[in-house]
Fold this protein.
Amino acid sequence: QQVISPTNAHHLTVLASISAELRLRTYIANGGQKENLSALASMERAMTGQAPQVYMDDEIQTMMRVFYVPNEKQLVRYHCTAVPLKHYFSEWSEEGPVADSSPEFYEKYPGIRGFMYSELCKHRQAIRYYEEALKYTEGYEID
């Protein structure tokens, strides 16, 4: 009995590879692994006492320094696998394994890209993908 399909095995391998690469590149960019470093705390200190617009511009610049993001395509690929995988395991933990269910752990749904760009504070791109997601779901009932 096959536990996971070859396609899903590939998606999981890519997910783990991207994860490891981002982690290692972040360590290199920050001069090593620092367990006691709180990235969010350092961001908060850098932002204190600034005007709203300056705060937003500086927030994006600080995020880019603290969280190493070399390639958006990698992040898109990561999210297009991680989000469906998370959804599958959430359902599985609530309902138990479904015998005939073998979903693919990769989804090109534009809402996933919208979420990712929103998290990167690239709001115009996020809105574009969210609008595309709305067109994608027209005629379908959403839970």
